[in-house]
Design goal:
The structure holds 3 protein chains of 3 kinds. Chain A is mostly beta strands. In chain A, 0% of the residues lie in helices and 62% in strands. In chain A, strand 7 and strand 8 form a beta hairpin. Chain A is globular, with a radius of gyration of 16 Å. Chain B is built from 2 helices and 5 strands; from the N terminus they run E-E-H-E-E-E-H. Chain B has a 4-stranded mixed β-sheet, with helices on one face. The chains are: A mainly beta, B alpha+beta, C mainly beta. At the B-C interface, strand 1, helix 1, strand 3, strand 4 and strand 5 of B face strand 21, helix 2, strand 23, strand 27 and strand 30 of C.
């Protein structure tokens, strides 16, 4: 199935084909299907010749926003100092004071991996004591539960 | 030798009436202590009603009796000791002068079971004279507090 | 009530109150509604905190599964367990292999399973419970099932074994105990020991907190030599009425081979603001009841049980009392001595009824009063009488602070209607001059005056000096033919010097023509206004020999040579020390008739030391004196004789160390050179969760002067028993205790009525 196209906007871009990487700086916005990434500096590296790329977005903070594929699923948003995205395994990785919000829950951690398809979120702690994973779960406020 | 007759009124100057209050949820009538206090103040023309500037409230009167000696011959009670303890407050124009002040007096009397009704009467008369002594002690204590007030 | 050992604060951070649940961990993953966290995970929700290496939490069902060793905290409870599931929303959960502690009363223990049922209720299986800390638990309750209910504050154990330092002590199918410090239905500290009367005994009181204003206590008591006695007390307290019922019942006492029972009822209350009622009723099944079944002196030393109801109606200047009074007399002299002169019976006259009216105008300086009384005196095998009396009084009183004076004139009219001569065993008509009616009328006049001096020393100390004089005239009338119903001889005191009758009661009105002189002086501390020292001294000088006497009063009383000198000294140098001496000296026979010296030292820390010497010469009209030869005791009646009673008394109650209180008392009769009562006791608190009490007592018990011994032990398991009684109340019926106790001491005569 043909991978979705990626659109990138930024103030300026430096496309150097021979190194296979391109760098975009200045309120960069990357969109792909329901996913939107925003940040200050984006580095795209081509990892193979089948169109798979790895994007590393830095920002203060870098943000992402994923609209639900199916009706009734939750919107998932998040931010971190750096967001990594590869279009082949639909997992985005947030590093550095990462926060992900989905359906009223909020997950904090140093490294958070969120699979956009399975909607599975994994968080890991940082080295220091106040960098532990913290999940805040809203009380059941009228969400339609199975 | 320095002795002088005590003043006529037990009250500080400028105060002409003292009210004595007492209440008991379980007994009726005033105990002799309260009656004696009121009669002493009545005789000195200073007994007032609840509106009086000086207020003496008798908070608690407790009479207790215990055995203090037993006849070694037949183990019967030989002597009882009566103790009466009173706690009272005193205020002048709403300002508290004495707060939960307590005084107590004791008397002992011998007991013989062939004069049981007599002993009951003796106990009652002793309690009355102890209450009268406590009334005088209270007035003395109030007078000393008033002197301090005057200074 | 003393609680158990303090529980160390739970090693878990207390949760902030918030409606959100927060999950903190080293790693966590969230998939739809299930969150899995690993690495010292902590879950917080509405006041609960759960910590474990691994937690799976379903955000919809609120179920949190914790594994590999968890800690769980919620207000009032902390537990650790191998694993457990918590429904965090409705605060329920199951835990396995748990160690729990109840934070409100220091209760703790282990349990195979803990099932939190919500609303503060827990069910523990195969569990134990104690309030002791440290490795070896001083006491430990192990049970198949323990239910804890934090709202009612009660715990209940089923199929329980109590172990004391590991040794099983008793088994009970059901045991109810408190888990907070409020008043609760439950077992009270058991008492066991032995006494010479009843051998080994064990009493386990059970308390029922029926309502805020009434409760009950049931005391089953096993007596080795006698059988099983059941005791009960029911107390009630309303806004204007309070009272209690006490009962004891011992079916077929083996030593006495009959049933033994005691019943006591007392009540005091206001029927209306002007009408009061008091009742006091005691009854025992037999004369030896207290000698056999009471372990205290207060019980064995009283032989007349009052059975009375009193109604009082008051209004300004008027008091009307109606009394119906009877007595049960134990070891009645009359029973075993029929030739006894009836004046010396120890069975008091019944007053069925006595109506008294006292009127006195609340006026000054003049007051008019009337005392009127009607009494119906009755006694078995004796003459009975109606006594009607009226005494109009005219009083005058003036008080100018520095001096005061008062006078009273009264005329007492009395009429006796005697009846029942034939059934009066040893009473011949000649005694009353063959007629049934005796009348008596006696005028009386007193005039008294006093001065009140005071001087203030330069350092602020005040000394008062109050001389006082009183003249008394009482008319003479021969009263030797009037039987004694309620009269008696009164001890001489400083106040009595100024009384208007040297006898008490109305059957003997002492003639008098005398002048009483007295002086009293006080030293008052400047700052506190406290009386630090008081001295009083007085004497009655008579102008005529006295003629009215009582059969039981030895000599006629002070004649024209005047009364004994009476002197009293009271010292209160500090708040803690009180010393008192009174002296009564007869100048003619140069003899001390009464000498009392007592000193007591008390501190707020509970230290109390009393020492006392009492000596008085008392005319004993008749006394049963027992001669014990070989085994039978033979009681003979000793006719009237003066008896010197000389006793010393030492009392001590001291917190010796942090966990040891000592109690001691020794009362020794000098002239009989015999111990009247010796008591030694201590309370030992080796740990914060239990205390041991021992009291050994030896006292004159029976009327033949024989001594009884009793030794009592009590184990108080703090946090299990209700009230941390001190050793004082454990030996509550004792002689020198002037601790203010809720109830007056047991013997009914001690119930004080306002005069």
């Amino acid at each position: 199935q043909q991978p979705l196209p990626i659109h990138i906007e930024s103030n300026n871009a430096d496309l150097s084909q021979q190194r296979g990487t391109s760098t975009y700086t200045g309120n960069v916005v990357l969109t792909r299907g329901g996913l939107t990434l925003t940040g200050n500096k984006l580095v795209i590296t081509r990892i193979n010749d089948r169109g798979n790329i790895k994007a590393v977005l830095d920002g203060s903070p870098a943000k992402f926003d994923k609209q639900p594929d199916r009706e009734g699923d939750d919107v998932v948003t998040g931010h971190a100092s750096q967001i990594e995205y590869a279009n082949n395994d639909s997992t985005i990785v947030l590093r550095g004071n990462a926060v992900v919000r989905r359906g009223g829950d909020e997950i904090n951690g140093q490294v958070i991996r969120h699979n956009l398809d399975t909607e599975r979120t994994q968080a890991e702690r940082g080295s220091s004591n106040n960098e532990r994973v913290r999940i805040t779960i809203q009380p059941e406020s009228g969400k339609d539960q199975p | 030798c320095g002795f002088h007759l005590q003043g006529a009124s037990p009250l500080p100057d400028g105060i002409d009436r003292m009210y004595v209050s007492y209440s008991d949820n379980y007994r009726v009538g005033d105990p002799p202590l309260v009656e004696t206090l009121r009669q002493r103040l009545r005789e000195r023309h200073v007994l007032g009603d609840s509106g009086a500037p000086a207020k003496l409230s008798i908070e608690d009167i407790e009479n207790r009796q215990r055995i203090v000696s037993v006849s070694p011959v037949d183990g019967q009670v030989a002597e009882y000791e009566l103790t009466t303890r009173v706690a009272f407050d005193y205020e002048v124009n709403g300002a508290s002068q004495l707060e939960n002040e307590t005084l107590s007096v004791s008397r002992s009397y011998s007991f013989d079971n062939t004069e049981r009704l007599g002993a009951e009467q003796e106990q009652s008369e002793l309690l009355t004279s102890m209450h009268e002594e406590l009334a005088n002690l209270i007035l003395l204590r109030v007078a000393t507090a008033n002197e301090k007030l005057a200074r | 009530a003393e609680m158990g050992c303090a529980v160390n604060t739970p090693p878990i951070a207390l949760p902030e109150p918030s409606a959100d649940s927060t999950l903190i961990a080293d790693q966590a993953s969230l998939q739809n509604e299930v969150a899995e966290a690993t690495g010292n995970v902590r879950l917080e929700r509405n006041g609960q905190a759960l910590e474990a290496p691994f937690v799976r939490y379903n955000r919809n069902s609120g179920r949190a599964e914790a594994r590999d060793g968890l800690q769980y905290y919620r207000p009032g409870l902390f537990l650790t367990a191998d694993n457990g599931d918590v429904l965090i929303n409705d605060e329920t959960g199951e835990f396995n292999q748990a160690n729990y502690s109840v934070l409100t009363n220091g209760g703790r223990g282990q349990a195979a399973t803990v099932n939190a049922l919500g609303a503060g209720r827990f069910e523990l299986t195969d569990a134990n419970y104690t309030t002791c800390d440290g490795e070896t638990k001083a006491w430990l309750l192990s049970a198949d099932r323990i239910e804890l209910d934090r709202t009612s504050g009660r715990g209940e154990a089923f199929d329980t074994v109590m172990r004391f330092y590991g040794v099983p002590v008793f088994y009970s199918p059901n045991l109810n105990f408190p888990i907070d410090d409020k008043r609760h239905t439950g077992v009270l500290p058991p008492t066991f020991g032995s006494s010479s009367d009843s051998g080994f005994e064990l009493a386990v009181p059970y308390y029922f907190n029926l309502a805020p204003n009434y409760d009950a206590t049931i005391v089953p008591r096993v007596l080795a030599k006698r059988g099983v006695q059941i005791g009960g007390q029911f107390r009630y307290l309303y806004e204007h009425h309070r009272g209690e019922f006490d009962g004891e019942y011992l079916p077929s006492d083996n030593e006495y081979d009959d049933d033994r029972a005691l019943f006591h009822f007392e009540h005091i209350g206001q029927l209306s603001p002007n009408v009061g009622i008091e009742a006091n009723y005691s009854r025992v099944s037999d004369d030896e009841y207290f000698d056999d079944l009471s372990n205290g002196l207060a019980g064995t030393s009283t032989s007349q049980l009052e059975q009375a109801v009193r109604l009082t109606a008051v209004d300004t200047g008027i008091r009307f009392t109606l009394l119906a009074q009877d007595f049960q007399t134990l070891d009645d002299y009359d029973d075993d001595n029929d030739n006894l002169d009836r004046a010396f019976s120890n069975d008091p006259y019944k007053r069925m009824p006595q109506a008294r009216l006292e009127m006195l105008t609340p006026s000054a300086p003049f007051r008019v009063g009337l005392d009127a009384e009607f009494s119906n005196f009755r006694r078995d095998d004796d003459i009975d009488a109606f006594r009607t009396e009226a005494r109009p009084r005219l009083l005058w009183g003036m008080d100018r602070g520095g001096w005061y004076a008062n006078s009273e004139a009264s005329y007492r009219l009395t009429r006796y209607d005697l009846r029942g001569f034939d059934d009066a065993e040893n009473f011949t008509r000649a005694d009353t001059g063959d007629d049934d009616v005796i009348t008596r009328d006696i005028p009386q006049f007193t005039l008294g005056s006093g001065l009140r001096f005071a001087r203030t020393f330069n350092d602020g100390w005040v000394q008062t000096l109050e001389p006082r004089a009183q003249y008394l005239y009482t008319g003479y009338e021969d009263q030797s033919d009037i039987p004694i119903f309620d009269s008696g001889v009164a001890d001489l005191h400083f106040d009595r010097l100024f009384s208007d009758n040297r006898f008490v009661g109305s059957d003997r009105i002492g003639d008098a023509n005398q002048l009483t002189l007295g002086v009293s002086s006080r030293f008052i501390e400047p700052e506190s206004g406290r009386t630090v020292a008081k001295v009083d001294f007085g004497r009655v000088t008579g102008f005529r020999d006295l003629r009215v006497n009582m059969p039981s009063s030895g000599e006629v009383g002070y004649g024209d040579r005047g009364s004994d000198y009476v002197a009293g000294l009271e010292l209160r140098p500090t708040e803690h020390i009180t010393a008192r001496t009174t002296l009564q000296y007869d100048p003619d026979d140069s003899r001390v008739n009464r000498a009392v010296a007592t000193a007591s030292y008390r501190t707020d820390a509970g230290y109390q030391f009393d020492i006392g010497y009492r000596r008085y010469r008392d005319y004993r009209p008749l006394r049963e004196v027992a001669r014990i030869d070989d085994d039978n005791t033979q009681t003979t009646l000793v006719p009237g004789a003066y008896e010197d009673l000389e006793q010393t008394a030492v009392g001590l109650r001291a917190p010796v160390t942090e966990n040891l209180d000592v109690l001691g008392r020794w009362n020794y009769s000098l002239e009989e050179s015999q111990n009247v009562e010796t008591l030694a006791g201590f309370e030992y608190r080796p740990s914060c969760c239990w205390a041991g009490r021992v009291a050994w007592r030896r006292y004159v018990a029976d009327d033949d002067g024989s001594m009884d011994t009793a030794i009592m032990f009590q184990f108080v398991l703090n946090g299990l028993g209700q009230f941390g009684d001190t050793v004082q109340s454990f030996v509550d019926e004792d002689v020198y205790d002037d601790e203010d106790r809720g109830r007056s001491s047991s013997s009914s005569f001690d119930t004080i009525r306002f005069p």
